Amino acid sequence: MDSINTKLESRLGSMVMSNPIVPASGTFGNGKKFQSFYDINVLGAVLSKSVTLESRTGNPQPRIFETPFGIMNSVGLENKGIDWFKKEILPFLTTLKTKKWVSISGFTTQEFVDLAESLNGFPIDAIEVNVSCPNIHAGGVQFCQNQNTLKETLHKVRKCSNSFLIAKIALETNPLDEAIRIISDEGFDAVCLGNTVRGLAIDVVNKKPFFKKTIAGLSGPAIKPIALRAVWEAYSFNPNLPIIGCGGIMTSSDVLEFIMAGASICEIGTANLIDPFAMPNIINSLSAYCSQNAISLRELVGIAH
Amino acid sequence: MIEKTNSTILSNEKLASSIYLLKLKLKEQVSEILPGQFIQLACTGNEVTLLKRPFSIMNAYNDTIDILYKVVGKGTLNLSQMKASRELELLIPCGNYFSTPTSSGVNLLIGGGVGIAPLFFLTKKFPDCHFDLWYGTSRKNERGPIDNWTGSNVKFHFHSDWNTVSNVEEFQGTILDAYKENSTLTPSKIYTCGPTIMMNKITENWKNKIPIEVSLEARMACGFGVCLGCSFKTTSGQKTVCSDGPVFNGETVVWESL
Ligand SMILES: Cc1cc2nc3c(=O)[nH]c(=O)nc-3n(C[C@H](O)[C@H](O)[C@H](O)COP(=O)(O)OP(=O)(O)OC[C@H]3O[C@@H](n4cnc5c(N)ncnc54)[C@H](O)[C@@H]3O)c2cc1C
Ligand SMILES: Cc1cc2nc3c(=O)[nH]c(=O)nc-3n(C[C@H](O)[C@H](O)[C@H](O)COP(=O)(O)O)c2cc1C
Ligand code: FES
Fold first, then answer.
1. Measuring CA to CA, which of A135, A299, B142, B246 is 20 to 30 A from B77?
2. E-assigned strands of B17-103?
C-alpha cells in the first residue's frame, strides 16, 4: 500500500472515509480470512456477511455457476444468526481501525426491526439494510419491489435505530425513482445500488434448472452496465442522496465510471472471489490516478452528468 | 497460509484420452504443501473464465508442483491448449490435508478418475508407509501411466467401469465392486477421492469399522472460505469444502447435501 493519499478521501453523506473501496456483503466473509492476505484496515470500510435473526443453513448445492463474464450464486443467506454474530464477529470487527459496517437481512419487516434494534449501542459505523431479499409476507416479492412494504420497513427501522443507515436495493427495482424517494424521505443516509440480478441457468443434461431454487443471483462484469445505469438514474432523481455503487466492479477504471455516474463509494464483490487482492490493488491504482491527474475523487462524483 | 503467486508451465503432457499432467514451477516459495491440499488456478484463455479452478496437488518437490487434470469444460479446455513457459496465477496451498497414514498396517487408497492425484501424493510424502492403491476410471482409455510412477511402498490395482473390447463396451462394475471381489485385505485406514457417489458408497461399506478420510469436491468460487459457495452439511453443522476441507472424516458427511 502507498502511504495515505488524501485525494482518495471520500464522503458518504456525513461519513468521512479514507477511500471509497468497501467489500460487498457476502464476498468478504466477516473479514478474518482476508486479514491473512493483507491488512484490511486499508479499506474504506469493512462490511460483514448479511446476518439474519436466526441461524440459516442456506440453499442446497450446487450454489455456484459461472456464466460468460459473470457468476451466479444461490448461497441463500447462510449465516449463524445475530446472537452468534454479536458474540463471535463484533468483537473482532471492533478491533479494526477502519469503518465497520454490518449488513442485516430479514424476511419480515419485524425481523429487520429486531435486527437493527439489537445492534443499538455497539460501536459500528453503519448498518446496510438488505431490502433486496424476499418478503415472506408478500409471497416472496423483494421488499424493495413493493413501495408499501419498503416504506413501512425503512420507516420502522429508522425509528428504532440510531445508526447510519444504508438501504441496499435490487438493481432491477422498478420504479427506481419511487424507491429513491422513499429511501430519502424515510431518513436513510444512503442507498446501495445494488444487489445481484435475478437470473436462471438450465442444466441441459438433466433438463432441469441448474439451481435447486431455480432463480439465482448474477454478479460480476456481466451486470456492470446495469449497475452503472441504476447509479446514474438514482443520481439524476436525487443528487443529494449519497450513493454506493455495486455491481461488476473489477478495476480502478470501473470505480471511476461509477463515481462519475454519481456514486460516492463503491462496493467490490465478485472481484474479491477472483483475486483476494482485488481491493488493495484498486486502491493503489486509484491513488496513482489521483496523483497523476492532480485531482481528488470527491471532485469527480456525478461529474459525467 | 495461502499465498497468491505466479507460476510457469514446465510441461503440459497428454497422458490419456482427455487426461493431462501439468507441471508448474512456482515463482515464490510457499509454506509446506501437504497431501490433500489443492490450488486455485487461473485458467483463462481462448474461452474467458473468471473464477480460478480447484485442482488437487499430485506432487510437490522443490518449487515445482504436479497437477493431474481431466478436460471437462472451458477452463480445463483452455489449460489443455497451453504450452510450456506460459505464466499462470494461482493460490497455494488451499484447504486442509490428510492425516498421517499408519506405519504399522496397510493404508487402503481408492481413487476414482483424477481423484487419484492427492492419493498419489500421499504415497510419495510417506515412503515408509504401505499403501494398497485402487485406481478406477470410467473408461479404460483414461488409465494413463500412473502405476509406472508409484514407489515400492505401493501395491497398484487398476479397474475400469467400462471395458472396451472391439468397440463394444461392457460394464465391469465399480471400483468398490472390484475391490470387494478381489481383495482379502483388512486395511487400518482408508483414504478416498473421486466422484461423490463413490466416496459415499465407500463410507457406507466401512462405516464404524475403519477410519475413512474422504476428499470432497464442490463447485467453488473463492476457494478460501469467504463466499460459502461450497458449504454443505455435516453431523457437526455446515462446513466449507474449500476451507474446512476438502478432507473430512467420511462418517461426518451428510452426503445428500453435496
Ligand atoms: C478440492 C478440489 C480438487 C479438485 N481436483 C481436481 C484434480 O486434481 N483434477 C481435475 O481434473 N479436477 C479436479 N477438480 C475438479 C475441477 O475443479 C473441475 O473439473 C474444474 O473446475 C472444471 O472447470 P472447467 O472450467 O473445465 O469446467 P466448467 O466449464 O466450469 O464446467 C464443466 C463441468 O465441469 C464440472 N465441474 C465444474 N466445476 C467443478 C468443480 N469445482 N468440481 C467438480 N466438478 C466441476 C461440472 O460437471 C460441469 O458440468 C477438483 C475440484 C475440487 C473442488
Ligand atoms: C457468493 C455471494 C454471496 C453474496 N451474499 C450477499 C449477502 O449476504 N448480502 C447481500 O446484501 N449481498 C450479497 N451478495 C451480493 C453482493 O454483495 C453484491 O451486491 C453483488 O455480488 C454485486 O456486486 P459484484 O458484481 O461486484 O459481485 C452476494 C454475492 C455473492 C457473489
Ligand atoms: S469456495 Fe468460497 S467458501 Fe468455499
1. B246
2. 19-26, 38-41, 53-56, 59-61, 64-70, 87-94
Of A71, A106, A108, A75, nearest to A197 (Cα)?
A: A71
| Contact assessment for residue B203 and residue B214, using Cβ atoms and an 8 Å cutoff | yes
Enter the pTM of the model. 0.95
**Beta-strand relationship, A10-12 and B106-112:** unpaired
Does the distance separating the beta carbons of B243 and A276 come in below 8 Å?
no
B115 sits in the region (left: phi over 0; alpha: psi -120 to 50; else beta) called alpha
Question: Residue A278 corresponds to which cell in the numbers above?
Answer: 482485488
Which alpha helices (H) appear in chain B, and where do they start and end?
A: 74-80, 116-125, 175-182, 196-206
Catalytically annotated residues of A = 133
What is the per-residue pLDDT across B7-36, written as a single tens digit (0 to 9) for each? 999 999 999 989 999 999 999 888 899 999
**Interface TM-score (ipTM) > 0.90:** yes
- Please calculate the CA angle B42-A25-B2 and round it to the nearest 5 degrees: 40
- CA A56, CA B185: separation in Å to the nearest integer? 44
Q: What is the set of domains in chain B, with CATH numbers?
A: 3-94 (2.40.30.10), 98-215 (3.40.50.80), 217-258 (2.10.240.10)
Identify the structural domains of chain A with CATH numbers, from first to last: 3-58+77-195+222-300 (3.20.20.70)
**In angstroms, what CA-CA distances link B257 with A268, B98, B238?**
30, 22, 10
Rounded mean pLDDT for each run of 10 residues along chain A, 305 residues in total: 75 97 97 96 97 96 96 96 97 96 95 97 96 78 90 97 97 96 97 95 96 95 98 98 98 98 98 98 96 95 98
What is the spatial distance between Cα A98 and Cα A43, in angstroms, rounded to a whole number?
A: 7
Q: What are the C-alpha distances in Å from B245 to residues A12, A100, B2, B97, B223?
A: 40, 30, 14, 8, 10
A75 to B228: CB separation less than 8 angstroms, yes or no: yes
pLDDT digits (tens, 9 = 90+) for B34-90: 999 999 999 999 999 999 999 999 999 989 999 999 999 999 999 999 999 999 999
CA distance linking residue A44 with residue A257, whole number of Å: 18
Strands (E), chain B: 3-16, 19-26, 38-41, 53-56, 59-61, 64-70, 87-94, 106-112, 130-139, 154-165, 168-171, 189-193, 212-215, 231-234, 237-240, 247-249
Determine the residue type at A95: T
Q: Which B-chain residues 87-106 have CB contacts (< 8 A) with chain A?
A: 89, 91
Contact status of B52 with chain A (Cβ, < 8 Å): yes
Instruction: Write out residues with Cβ below 6 Å of ligand 2.
Output: A 24-27, 49-50, 73, 75, 77, 103, 130, 168, 195-196, 219-220, 223, 246-249, 268-271; B 221, 227, 229
